[in-house]
Design a protein that fits this description.
Radius of gyration of chain A: 30 Å
Low-confidence stretches of chain A: none
Strand content of chain A: under 5%
Largest sheet of chain B: none
Structural class of chain A: mainly alpha
Number of helices of chain B: 14
Number of domains of chain A: 2
Number of helices of chain A: 9
Oligomer: heterodimer
Shape of chain A: elongated
Mean pLDDT of chain B: 84
Radius of gyration of chain B: 22 Å
Structural class of chain B: mainly alpha
Shape of chain B: globular
Largest sheet of chain A: none
């Protein structure tokens, strides 16, 4: 067993443990942090597959941004675990369907070897091969239109999210920063000339 | 020469030699870093002291030089108090989460041409990935303390750091566009090209001049990202006492303190590498002078000098500006920096496509 295989099993074991804890942890904050741990392991696995761009992007996007906001929300929520438990039997049919689908998909992937996927040649990369550069080249040449389409859809989603949550309060007060910056000393301070009083001899 | 010296050691360690050599390099980076971290605290107190026309620490050792050591010993021997109802595991993990990414980034920072622990191709991305993890230390500390002020600090920190990461990342996109690489060593090397660099005036061919707005954005975002004054609402002594660190004492508190100073040094190194030409000499034409010429050629000393200047700038603005109000911080990040970055990406794009392109 070479070093890479040991690494693979280590990362996978921790990842499975973390993923398991995500759904079993009682405290939602702990669950979110275990999800972060799972992301780190997944990115480690991708590094083993020489997909360094995807690995780093996973950390930047999910760990660096998405999970921070997620934690932000989870910490503020007051989740009542009891009421969530009570809904177990109601949610079971939907959950079981999705779970079954995922099991089927994993089975399809794992059984690929029986359908002849192992006949695919192993990819070997030339020296100086840069995964990031290659990905960038493909995204901006062969897949330029799908890429642009995806970005437009994301932009629409951003604007939609802003519009949906934007509500104007009538009683809110707004500061006009331009006006604040344009303030000069003369507008605020008035110099008053007061002659000093003379002491009168009495 | 170095190779010849290492030959016997290499033979002695055999197959585990790469591991040993990497560990030696890590120690070689960490020890000076920890020392500069400690003395950064002294430098800050001294500089701010002089700016306030007082002396600063001057009792321990000559000119107060032993002060950081004394502080360290004091903090080591203090009791660490865990608040009632705190999440013990996370309470102790938080300071580690704060410090570890700040130290891990140093793996990819090139100190001079070829002097880098890991010459990673996607170096900039890796840097963004590692530094983005730093916010967890603050958030977890705030939550695990089971106390109100730390929680408020954590909320402020997460919003602020995520916001300024956006403008930092966008500013870096301009740098990547002109350098055509994500490798930090390459980014510095590219800055050695151009009319001025060819005539020995490297100073004017570095990224800070053509990307001046981005340089300013990155510098200010760097201050905000490290939660330093005037963006230190996360600690905000006058409002929420000390933010996420209120409940920490002794060495656990010291780790947060060290993380802040390491982050400052990291940001200064990044500013030096991305915009100030890293280890390149600003006045290369002087390197042919007799005797003193070596000081004007490229090398680590220039990087150190640039980092020191940036760090001085950080301390300087701390002593100068009053604290920003929270909504103003958010406004500056989202309504000023982000549009400015997007505009400048467009400007650079047009510039690079025009015949006036200087980035080749």
């Amino acid at each position: 067993m070479d070093f890479k295989t040991i690494l693979f099993y280590m990362l996978s074991a921790v990842m499975i443990f973390a993923a398991f804890r995500v759904i079993t942890a009682r405290n939602p904050v702990h669950a979110a942090l275990f999800l972060v741990l799972a992301f780190f392991q997944a990115s480690g696995l991708w590094l083993l597959l020489q997909a360094e761009f995807l690995a780093v992007a996973l950390i930047v996007v999910y760990v660096g941004a998405v999970m921070v906001l997620f934690l932000f929300v989870v910490m503020m929520l007051d989740i009542n675990i009891e009421s969530v438990r009570r809904g177990f039997w109601n949610h079971l049919p939907l959950g079981a369907t999705i779970g079954g689908l995922m099991v089927f998909e994993m089975f399809a992937v794992l059984s690929g070897r029986y359908f002849g996927l192992d006949a695919m040649p192993q990819q070997t990369n030339p020296v100086g091969y840069s995964n990031t550069k290659e990905l960038g080249r493909l995204l901006f040449t062969d897949f330029a239109y799908p890429f642009e389409l995806a970005s437009v859809i994301l932009l629409v989603a951003i604007i939609a999210a802003v519009v949906l949550t934007h509500r104007k309060r009538k009683d809110s007060k707004v500061m006009r920063v331009v006006d604040q910056l344009a303030v000069r000393r003369e507008d605020r301070i008035r110099m008053v000339n007061m002659p000093s009083e003379k002491e009168t001899a009495e | 020469m170095m190779e010849a010296l290492l030959q016997p050691l290499q033979a002695f360690f055999g197959p585990i030699w790469p591991l040993v050599w990497t560990l030696v390099k890590i120690v070689g980076i960490m020890i000076p870093l920890l020392l500069s971290m400690a003395y950064m605290t002294l430098a800050e107190r001294k500089v701010i002291g002089y700016m306030h026309i007082r002396l600063g620490p001057n009792r321990v050792g000559f000119w107060g030089l032993m002060q950081p050591i004394a502080d360290g010993i004091k903090l080591l021997f203090k009791e660490i108090i865990v608040p009632t109802g705190a999440d013990k595991w996370l309470f102790f993990l938080a300071p580690i989460f704060a410090l570890a990414p700040a130290l891990a980034v140093w793996a990819i920072i090139p100190f001079a041409d070829g002097w880098v622990l890991a010459n990673v191709d996607a170096g900039v991305l890796l840097m963004l990935a590692i530094t983005s993890f730093g916010v967890y230390g603050v958030i977890i500390a705030g939550w695990a303390s089971n106390s109100k002020y730390p929680f408020l600090g954590a909320m402020r920190a997460s919003a602020q750091m995520v916001s300024y990461e956006v403008s930092m990342g966008l500013a870096l996109i301009c740098v990547l566009m002109v350098s055509n690489s994500l490798n930090l060593t390459d980014i510095v090397r590219v800055q050695n090209h151009g009319y001025f660099a060819d005539h020995g005036w490297g100073l004017f061919s570095w990224n800070w001049l053509p990307l001046l707005p981005m340089f300013v954005v990155y510098l200010i975002s760097g201050v905000a990202e490290t939660n330093r004054a005037p963006f230190d609402v996360v600690e905000g002594e006058s409002e929420i006492v000390a933010g996420h660190m209120v409940e920490y004492s002794g060495m656990a508190f010291a780790l947060f303190f060290l993380a802040e100073y390491t982050n400052m040094i990291v940001v200064s190194a990044m500013v030096a590498i991305f915009f100030l030409g890293g280890w390149l000499s600003p006045v290369g034409f002087l390197q042919h002078l007799p005797l003193v010429g070596f000081a004007f050629s490229d090398g680590f000393h220039w990087l150190a000098l640039k980092m020191a200047a940036t760090l001085f700038f950080f301390i300087w603005i701390r002593a100068t500006f009053p604290r920003y109000r929270y909504d103003q911080i958010m406004r500056l990040g989202w309504k000023v920096f982000v549009p400015l970055c997007l505009l400048w990406i467009f400007v650079i794009g047009v510039w690079m496509m025009s015949p006036l392109n200087i980035f080749k």
